[in-house]
Amino acid sequence: MPSDTLRFAVTDGVALITLNRPEALNALNRELVDALMEALHTIRDDDAIRVGVLTGEGRAFSAGADLKERAAGGASGPGGGSPASFFAADTGFSFATFDAGKPLIAAIGGHCLAGGLELALTCDIRIAADDSRFGVPEITRGFFPGAGAPQRLPRMIPQALAMEMLLTGDPIDAAGALGAGLVSRVVPREQLLPTAMEIARRIAAHAPLAVRAVRELAYAANDMTLAQAMRFGGSLRWIIGQTDDAAEGPRAFAEKREPRYEGR
C-alpha cells in the first residue's frame, strides 16, 4: 500500500494503521481512504494478523472527510463515487460497510470528528486520550453523516445524547464519551498508543478462531431474540470446541505453560 498518507506495520500478530496527514488533521481524502481500505483488506485476508489498531498522527485521530476535496468536486472520504456505487454488490469498498472479521481497536487522540468518528465507530474497542473530542458536525455544513453515525451512534450510546450530537453538530469531550460508553477508557495522551497496543497484544494471544466467533456472536445477537441468540451461540461454541486450539488451552493449563494457539 504505497502511500505517504498512511503507515502500516505488523508486529506479533497486531497490525498498526496510522493515518498520516497531520497537516490536514488526517482528513480523509481519496488517497487516504484507498490506502485505508487496502490496509483493512490485508488485516482481513492475512491469517498472521489477529488484531488491528487504528490511530492518527499528530493532533487528531481524523477530522473527517476532506472538505476542500469535496468542494472541488472530488470524491472524498466514505460515500464518494458514482450513483451506481450505492448498488454495488461488494460492500468492501467503504469502511462504513466493511467487516474485517477480526477485532479492531481505535486509539483516539485529539479531534475525532465526522467521518473520523464514523471510522472509530466501526472499531470494536475505542480508547481515548484525555484531549480527544468527538462529534458529527456535518449538519452544520448542509448535509449529514453518511458513513454510519446516524445508524450506529443511537445503538452505542443513549439515544437522547446521540440525537443531540447528530442534530446540533456539537462535540463532546473525552469525559463525556467515557460516561456515555462511547469509549472504554480514557488515558493520558502519552499512554494512548501503548495502552491500545497492550490490549491488542492480549487479544492476539488468544485462540484466533474463538476470538472471531465470540465477536461475530456479540454483533449477531443484537438482531436476534434471546432464544435465537442462545441457540446460535451454542452452535458457534460447539464448532469452536472441535478446534485444535480448544484442546490446546486446557492442555496448556494442565501442563502449567502458556498455550500455543495456531488458529485451527
Short account of what is shown:
By secondary structure, the chain is an alpha/beta fold.
Report on the structure:
The strands form two sheets. A six-stranded mixed beta sheet has the order 1-2-3-5-7-10, sandwiched between helices. A four-stranded mixed beta sheet has the order 4-6-8-9. It contains ten helices and ten strands. The mean pLDDT is 90. Helix 4 packs antiparallel against helix 5. It folds into two domains: 6-204, Alpha-Beta Complex (2-enoyl-CoA Hydratase, Chain A, domain 1); 208-254, Lyase 2-enoyl-coa Hydratase, Chain  A, domain 2. The protein has helices at 30-45, 67-71, 115-121, 149-156, 159-168, 174-180, 192-204, 208-220, 226-241, 244-254, and strands at residues 6-11, 14-19, 51-56, 60-62, 104-108, 111-113, 125-129, 133-135, 172-173, 185-187. The protein has 264 residues and is of the alpha/beta class. It starts with 5 loop residues before the first strand and ends in a 10-residue tail after the last helix. A hairpin with a 2-residue loop joins strand 1 (6-11) and strand 2. The radius of gyration is 19 Å and the shape is globular.
